[in-house]
Amino acid sequence: ATNGAAWTATITRARSFEVVTDGSSCKRSAPRMGHALLSRSIDRGYSPVLRVALAFVDIALHRRGPDQIPASGFLFTIVVSVYLLSAYLALGVAPPPPGDSAAAARAVALAPFLIPIESAVYGAFIWGLLKSFQHDRRFLQTATALFGTDTLFTLMSLPLLAWVSALDAAGQAG
Fold this sequence. Notes:
- The protein has five helices and three strands, in the order βββααααα.
- The protein has helices at 35-43, 48-60, 73-93, 102-132, 139-173; strands at 10-14, 17-21, 26-29.
- Strands 1-2-3 form a three-stranded antiparallel β-sheet, with no helix packed on it.
């Protein structure tokens, strides 16, 4: 029996399918291969860094929400630091903008100064959005999740950026 907005979800496993019921509906989801085996061993506490990285992967794939990330100022600081580092790394690997104009040279010169400003605006937007819906107490979790998933996407794009940069350099040389 449900009481107002409060309800409890019962999660059971049946024949490698996850069955989620909330009293009124039943949803079956397909089993997760590979990742489930890895996450079971990681959930036992073998590697905290790998657990956090896989939590960001799960958030990006909509398997988890930001509420699964601990509300830790230390973790937030580490994630934002890695986010800034990956942004500077991507800036170093990325090909220069097309054209030899003074505006393109100015943009390249200003980019290192704009990365922290962009990060601060990103964080302020997250806080403002959460504050407007009275969820400001979830700022650390949400910001950590967003900066962490953005870091994963940036790190995954580095090989592509390096390849495009190499193609650009080869095209200019030949």
